[in-house]
Write a structure and sequence with these properties.
The complex is a heterodimer. By secondary structure, chain A is mainly β. Helix content of chain A is about 0%, strand content about 50%. In chain A, strands 2, 4, 5, 6, 9, 10 and 11 form a 7-stranded mixed β-sheet that branches. By secondary structure, chain B is mainly β. Chain B is globular, with a radius of gyration of 13 Å. The chains are: A mainly beta, B mainly beta. At the A-B interface, β5 and β10 of A face β5, β8 and β9 of B.
């Protein structure tokens, strides 16, 4: 079964950019939609956005244009960038695969904690 | 924006008992767009129920989902030790995915 693995810095300074990468274990990266989701005690689970290998993407309006995602099919990876971070962006960040109907998330990475602090 | 409200916040039960978890949606939604996840400490959420009542692959039949409109329920018929965890409901609609705040099922 497919495995997802998040990677990136665990500590980011306020006002800087958070960058994370999700590695997918098989070539299914070209066949599904992929999302980033974060979880914090304050906000719970929050969908950040999705991307498809064609470049199609959509983001949560609550993040007010600070989000972008990109794909690297040659490496079976996709990435998240979140700019101008504040302490409110401190969370565990998950990458997840959408189900065939794309309404749910059927595979998740183990999550990577990110702290925003100077 | 659709809001999902789960109740109770915490459910204290003993193994073998029945658990009933509620997910109330702020406006009527199609049941095809409602899912439930289980999350254990230090782990990612795991899809348990989708389309309100369909068990995901490998999920035991003691788990069942029901409901329609604005009221959805996850029922665990007889709690096993491995079922004590946090459960989230999730809705998809209008290119937005939203989650409830979770119900913790703890050992009494």
């Amino acid at each position: 079964q497919v495995q997802l693995q998040e990677s990136g810095p665990g500590l980011v300074k306020p006002s800087e950019t958070l960058s994370l990468t999700c590695s997918v274990s098989d070539r299914s990266i070209r066949s599904y939609y992929w999302s980033w989701i974060r979880q914090s005690p304050e906000k719970g689970l929050e969908w950040i956005g999705y991307i498809y290998h064609s470049g199609s993407s959509s983001y949560n309006p609550s993040l007010r244009g600070r989000v972008s995602m990109s794909f690297d099919t040659s490496k079976d990876q996709f990435s998240l960038r979140l700019t101008s971070v504040t302490a409110a962006d401190t969370a565990v960040y998950y990458c997840a695969r959408h189900s065939n109907t794309w309404r749910y998330f059927d595979y998740w990475g183990q999550g990577t904690p990110v702290t925003v602090s100077s | 924006e659709i809001v999902l409200t789960q109740s109770p916040g915490t459910l204290s039960l003993s193994p073998g008992e029945r658990a009933t978890l509620s997910c109330r949606v702020s406006q009527s939604v199609h049941s095809d767009f409602l899912a439930w996840y289980q999350q254990k400490p230090g782990q990612a959420p795991r899809l348990f129920i989708y389309a309100a009542s369909t068990r995901a692959t490998g999920i035991a039949d003691r788990f069942s989902g029901s409901g329609s409109g604005t009221e959805f329920t996850l029922t665990i018929s007889r709690l096993e030790p491995e079922d004590f965890a946090v459960y989230f409901c999730q809705h998809y609609g209008g290119s937005l995915w939203t989650f409830g705040q979770g119900t913790k099922v703890e050992i009494k």
